[in-house]
């Protein structure tokens, strides 16, 4: 389980940074022309900068010493012109790379989103939504600096470094050696702290993710939090998490802060060495004043890119864990996907068959055992049984949200594993107890069932399930906004919209999982008429705890501990005096007792 419970930090497989960097660099491939242009512009800027110390040498040795003012002015004008051109080129390359970076981040976000949408239910079973959000938003953002700095700074800095080194060694070999004396030490230091730093940034990212997950879940469940007055407890947990996050950040940053001072120290020591040794060479007449001044100029041109590279390295170390986390998700193989030879399911009649189906969620716990079932097209099947018996699991297998471990699930004689998911799920409609409405209008939510449905069709569907009455009374009728998750509506109203949505989709196979559980008896009567319309001519699976709602089903299957233990009509099962009879009598008695108790 790579990343799981809410307050637990995720575990991520260790991966080779080089492979991740290569993979990231792959995203630059489609932008070769832009990258090439950026490099060209950078080349011009570097060229212009490299000329500066040389111009200084010329100014001193050729014009100042000879007191040639006209020549000096000409040189100065040339230098200003070159500088202006360099500034323009710099601005252009920043603009181009910012565009490229933005498009790459967009691509990664799209890839992540599309990929996560394809992942099976089992992926979401183990992962809090907040942790998924953290990856799509936070981790992708963290790559921004990496991309924009890599081309605009890293490559030019490396080129500058190589060019300056060459020039310095060409100008004076011994001075060059003196100025770079500290470099090997610096390199060793950087390498040694990288390992620890990377580890610390990883921990920080996990903490951020955990905080996000916690915040997301608690605000999603704010009604429960408030009704149980759990605010102090959740605040305490949140405080603990953000303090852990802060500590992780401080630990990571503290190490980062070592990078710059160590480069500055090496720079300072190098400059001192050049000044000391340069004066000595000057005294012996080995070098000119102009050369020494130019050399000092080149030293700062050498250390500036070293500083930038170490800064980039810093960014790389702190953000590479974001890339790891992104690829970690992109590498998850959607276990439930179209097989290479998958076929499209033609419009179905609606026969559903289970052949010796065994099913597990987690390794050794059989949830369904040897389920055999044959449902004729148009038949209404009710699934009843104790809580946790396996009713929902059965219908999940029909939609192939999960796959059977053994046996086969067939629709019109075709194994669901051999079909494309789109053609399979497109012909199955589902209404769940926990109806999910999206923010938007009532009309848009009903139309979710069939996106090309006309307004008239939407209204007709609502009428059929008796939702039209209450919708018409809403402030803006069908255009009323339902708010996030439909919080503007009552539970029963949301359910009725879900029925209208399912009716509009007009699926051949329909699944109602506890769909009437939250509806009061009066509305239920209305809804039952709607449901009767909904079920007509379709193969339907109705899961219900309230047995009064399924008495008219063609067949009732009683599920107990993952097996079908009884099957028949309401009357037949009552006669059998088995589990169904017991369940029915228990509910019947309960309903009889309730008013009596209330009266007493
Ligand atoms: N995503 C899951 N991961 C692991 N186990 C699960 C998962 N979903 C359900 N289970 C387990 O599988 C068993 C069957 O669950 P299922 O939801 O099919 O029962 P059900 O009959 O529909 O129950 P209910 O009437 O309460 O909705 C239960 O023991 C449950 O704990």
Question: Briefly, what is this?
Answer:
Keywords: ATP-binding, Membrane, Nucleotide-binding, Transmembrane, Transmembrane helix, Transport. The chain is of the alpha/beta class. The chain is built from 20 helices and ten strands.
Describe the structure.
- It is built from 20 helices and ten strands.
- With 600 residues, it is of the alpha/beta class.
- The protein folds into three domains: 17-330, ABC transporter transmembrane region fold (Up-down Bundle), CATH 1.20.1560.10; 350-427 and 539-600, P-loop containing nucleotide triphosphate hydrolases (Rossmann fold, 3-Layer(aba) Sandwich), CATH 3.40.50.300; 429-506, Rossmann fold, CATH 3.40.50.300.
- The model is unreliable at 595-600 (pLDDT under 50).
- The protein binds adenosine-5'-triphosphate.
- Residues 36-318 form the ABC transmembrane type-1 domain.
Low-pLDDT runs of 5+ residues are: 595-600
Order of helices and strands: HHHHHHHHHHHEEEHEEHEHHHHEHEEEHH
- The portion of residues assigned to helices is 55-70%
Please give the radius of gyration in angstroms. 35 Å
Distance between the termini: 53 Å
CATH superfamily of the largest domain: ABC transporter type 1, transmembrane domain
Q: What is the tally of helical segments?
A: 20
Oligomeric form: single chain
Which ligands does the model contain, each kind named once? Answer: adenosine-5'-triphosphate
State the CATH architecture of the largest domain: Up-down Bundle
CATH class of the largest domain: Mainly Alpha
* Strand neighbour order, sheet with most strands: 6-7-8-3-9-10
| Total E-strand runs | 10
> Largest sheet, described in full?
6 strands, mixed
Shape: elongated
